[in-house]
Write a structure and sequence with these properties.
The structure holds three protein chains of three kinds. Chain A is built from one helix and eleven strands; from the N terminus they run βββββββββαββ. Chain A is mainly beta. In chain A, the strands form three sheets. Chain A has a four-stranded mixed β-sheet with strand order 9-11-1-10. Chain A has a four-stranded antiparallel β-sheet with strand order 2-3-4-8, with no helix packed on it. In chain A, β5 and β6 form a beta hairpin. Chain A is elongated, with a radius of gyration of 16 Å. The N and C termini of chain A lie close together (5 Å). Chain B is globular and about 60 Å long. In chain B, α5 links the parallel β3 and β4. Chain B starts with 5 loop residues before the first strand and ends in a 10-residue tail after the last helix. Chain B has an eight-stranded parallel β-sheet. Chain C is an alpha/beta fold. Helices cover 38% and strands 10% of the residues of chain C. Chain C has an eight-stranded parallel β-sheet with strand order 1-2-3-4-5-6-7-8. The longest helix of chain C is centred in the middle third of the chain and has 21 residues. Classes of the chains: A mainly beta, B alpha/beta, C alpha/beta.
């Protein structure tokens, strides 16, 4: 596993997402209220691109006919068969134990620290005054 | 034949409305006669169709057996059955008047008690439920104290799907009394036999019962009846059985993607059904070879769902072939004894009025 | 800037050694004006003034609202605008080229006018949709084939539409919806079977349509998930009807394809029908063979939505019981329950059987 600089923080505002590549994998990075999360951009079901799905909240229920909505924007729904994945953990909602999408640790690092290495910055320049999202893959 | 075998589907035939009059109050006794309402028969079981009654079980005038003496001779003594559950199919669901439906249902249940349950200790019965929800709850409350009533009985094709909230008072009452909901083949004829209209042939209509079970089960699961009533069991009676695994594959798959529409369904439908639903094994829509039957039972993924039944007097087998061909012998004690006892709690009580 | 390699293309399944045929693609108009050149003044007037009117009351919207906009994959909306599958270049890119599809069968859904309460509009739109399929799609893309859309509630008009196109190899089948006003074996639909059999065309019976009856034989359910489930159920009623009414006895050359209805019910329906028929043979002497035999010879199924048993291997039993030669791959592009050709057909299915499913069976059935 190596640390990859994938994007300037400014390119992924809160509620936003960006598809990046690291270690030969397509990865989608989400910004949830300033925290970054990275998931493999490939649904474990039939390979659908999660990055094309919608952000939704979690819908639960205590009794038929009631709908308890929470965590708006923290669930990614696959654009194909609509499987729901918790962005924070990569776990599917319907089967959290066994059905999940691969998660990659994502952090923010200041440009100054990155310029000291060791990191892979793929093909863009790192500037000391900016912050960057770093994904371990 | 296992000594403790429990037959979960027997049909006592009501010869005609006249039989029920002694069990009705003055108004109904008079009005049914005055109006010439002598018979009520459902197209679900044409009386003369070969499948409605096995030829050797018909009486001298061709009628289906309607006495406990016939039941003893044809079933209980013949096969050494320990317990038999009566599911009356007199079509009280057909009349549009909720009052007539309720009066007839009360009469059928009282007739079953007097002419069958009181005459043979081996017998138990389902409470035949009328159309109206309030009336059905009242009938459950009326008869639940008699421990020989072991189930509430409805048809697989009614006016409204069985999971819908309109039905919930019935589910609540049944759960309260520890009675399973028995869903039997047949229609209240509020809708055509299929969702695509009226077929031409009885063969199609009979086959379409399976479709009614499918719709009923989809409704019960997706409406969350088992979340609301975790103690409720459902028995699918005369459904055919083999359609269930494929049905569950589709429903569970859909649920993974459309779960947010019915968020109270908090685990895969297949798991819910394995916990709450049981099926009687006549008819058993499968080839007769043991290998195919074994594969199909493997798809069911449970040894606890099947309940023995002969479906007397409906014609599904010849002679004494009370078990569908191909069933693994190792499973028979469960099918014939353990599963029925586990499903019908009252069977474990020994049975008394 | 982090450069991302595009999703690797093409993603053709290696096992598609007999070719890859997609039996279910849903092209759509960008807007109704695409039909204008093919409609009379009167039909166009009715269409835009009174609208398409299926046997339900939702002039806009659906009795059971979909779980995603237009029931489509969210990534299938073309960048040029318009609804999914309204743009041929994007459809090529996202489906035909990406998966290396050799032949794709077009099954236009609403607004096709099929099942409309108004027979005249249904007939006019059927003709228009058929012309539109050629003008907008098939004539520009040699990999595509059209389906003859017919106003199926009007048997003779449907037969006329079939005969109009019979022999035109750009059309590979006749298209019906699965929820019709009466069961499809009933006499009123026999002109359709006759014309299709005469033309040597299979009939695709695709999930949906609105029968005008309650959505189940026990009344109206509440939820979309129940409607999705019910497509398998009503498909069983339709196959039952075609078999028991003697459609296959009367038209021995006819073949039908149940599209997007699931297929796990096929073997168990065959068993049920055989058992029921054995007891009640006296009622249906016009059937000279067991129902399962008619099904085995005449009824095909498309794969999508592929069944997903808890124990995946159980699928092998089901497909074995149906008959490997009668299962046809379909993607259902651009709908949300789309099956990816590479990943939907499990790899534990023996390779030669997968080749048959991917293309061998369809080539034989359609004569591609």
């Amino acid at each position: 596993m190596a640390r990859h600089v994938v994007a300037p923080v400014a390119e992924i505002p809160p509620g936003g997402r960006k598809v990046v590549e690291a270690a030969g994998k397509r990865i989608v990075v989400f910004n949830l209220g300033g925290e970054f999360f990275a998931l493999l951009d490939r649904c474990p079901h039939q390979g659908g691109p999660l990055s094309s799905g919608i952000l939704c909240g979690l819908t639960q229920s205590d009794a038929p006919g009631t709908y308890r909505f929470s965590r708006a924007g923290e669930v990614i729904r696959c654009p194909w068969h609509q499987w729901e994945f918790d962005i924070r953990t990569g776990q599917s909602w319907f089967d959290p134990r066994r059905t999940k999408v691969r998660r990659f640790p994502a952090t923010v690092a200041p440009g100054a620290a990155l310029l000291e290495g060791p990191c892979r910055a793929e093909t863009f320049p790192v500037r000391v005054e900016d912050s960057y999202v770093v994904v371990e893959a | 034949m296992t000594e403790a075998a429990i037959d979960c589907d027997l049909h006592p035939t009501v010869p005609g409305v006249a039989t029920l009059l002694p069990f009705m109050d003055e108004y109904w006794r008079h009005t049914l006669v005055e109006r010439g309402i002598e018979a009520l028969e459902s197209a679900s079981y044409p009386p003369n169709a070969p499948s409605t009654c096995r030829a050797d079980w018909r009486g001298p005038k061709g009628g289906a057996p309607s006495s406990v003496a016939e039941l003893r001779a044809q079933v209980l003594d013949r096969w050494g059955t320990a317990i038999g559950i009566l599911n009356p199919l007199f079509p009280v669901q057909l009349p549009f008047s909720r009052d007539m439906s309720a009066a007839l249902a009360r009469a059928v249940n009282d007739w079953v008690r007097a002419e069958w349950l009181d005459r043979d200790d081996r017998l138990r019965a389902s409470i035949l439920l009328p159309n109206g929800v309030e009336e059905a709850v009242a009938e459950i409350e009326r008869l639940a104290p008699d421990r020989r009533f072991v189930q509430g009985l409805v048809l697989c094709m009614g006016e409204i799907p069985l999971g819908r909230r309109e039905w919930w008072p019935v589910h609540a009452a049944l759960e309260k009394h520890g009675l399973p909901l028995g869903i039997h083949a047949g229609s209240a004829w509020r809708h055509p036999p299929t969702s695509v209209g009226w077929p031409s042939w009885y063969v199609e209509e009979y086959a379409a019962n399976a479709l009614g079970f499918q719709a009923s089960l989809a409704s019960l699961v997706t409406e969350g009846v088992f979340q609301k009533h975790p103690g409720l069991k459902v028995v699918l009676i005369e459904s055919g059985v083999s359609w269930l695994p494929g049905f569950l594959w589709r429903l569970s798959k859909s649920w993974k993607g459309v779960r947010f529409e019915v968020p109270w369904v908090d685990r895969p439908p297949a798991e819910i059904v394995r916990d709450h639903v049981r099926l009687t094994i006549r008819p058993f829509d499968a080839p007769e070879d043991g290998e195919t039957v074994a594969r199909m039972l493997d798809h069911l993924r449970s040894d606890e769902m099947l309940l023995w039944a002969t479906d007397w007097p409906h014609a599904h087998f010849e002679g004494d072939a009370t078990l569908p061909a191909g069933l693994p012998t190792g499973l028979l004690p469960k099918i014939m004894v353990d599963n029925p006892r586990a499903t019908y709690a009252r069977l474990r009580e020994g049975g008394s009025a | 800037m982090n450069l991302v390699r595009p999703i690797a293309a093409p993603a053709r399944p290696a096992a598609a050694s007999l070719g890859l045929v997609d039996c279910d693609i849903h092209p759509r108009v960008r807007d109704l004006s695409e039909f204008r050149p093919f409609l009379s003044e009167a039909a166009w007037h009715r269409l835009i003034t009174y609208g398409i009117h299926a046997r339900h009351g939702f002039a806009k919207g659906y009795p059971f609202p979909k779980a995603a906009p237009l029931a489509c994959r969210r990534d299938a909306w073309p960048p040029s605008g318009g609804p999914p599958a309204s743009d041929l270049p994007f459809l090529r890119e996202q489906l035909l080229d990406r998966y290396g599809i050799d032949v794709g069968v077009l099954n236009p859904l609403q607004p096709s006018g099929q099942g409309d309460v108004n027979d005249g509009l249904s007939a006019a739109l059927a003709r228009a949709v058929n012309e539109w399929q050629l003008a907008h799609w098939v004539d520009h893309e040699p990999r595509l084939r059209a389906s003859i859309v017919v106003p199926y509630e009007d048997g003779p008009a449907s037969a006329a539409e079939i005969r109009r196109w019979a022999g035109d190899r750009r059309f590979c089948q006749v298209l019906l919806m699965s929820r019709t006003a009466e069961p499809l074996g009933r006499q009123r639909y026999w002109p359709i079977w006759e014309a299709a059999a005469e033309a040597g065309l299979p009939v695709g019976i695709h999930a949906f349509g609105y029968s005008g009856h309650a959505m189940t034989n026990g009344g109206w359910p509440s939820f979309y998930i129940e409607e999705v489930q019910e497509h398998a159920t009503s498909a069983q009623a339709q196959v039952t009807s075609m078999v028991v009414e003697g459609v296959f006895e009367r038209f021995p050359a006819l073949r039908v394809i149940m599209i997007e209805c699931g297929f796990a019910w096929m073997p168990t329906l065959a068993w049920r029908l055989d058992a029921t028929w054995k007891r009640l043979k006296d009622e249906v002497p016009h059937l000279r063979r067991a129902p399962s035999e008619y099904m085995r010879e005449h009824v095909f199924v498309s794969t999508q939505p592929i069944e997903e048993p808890e124990r995946p291997q159980h699928l092998l039993d089901t497909m074995e019981w149906i008959g490997w030669e009668r299962i046809l791959f379909a993607s259902d592009y651009p709908h949300w329950d789309f099956d990816d050709p590479r990943l939907a057909i499990p790899s534990f299915i023996p390779e030669e059987k997968r080749a048959a499913i991917y293309g061998g069976n369809a080539r034989r059935l359609f004569g591609f």
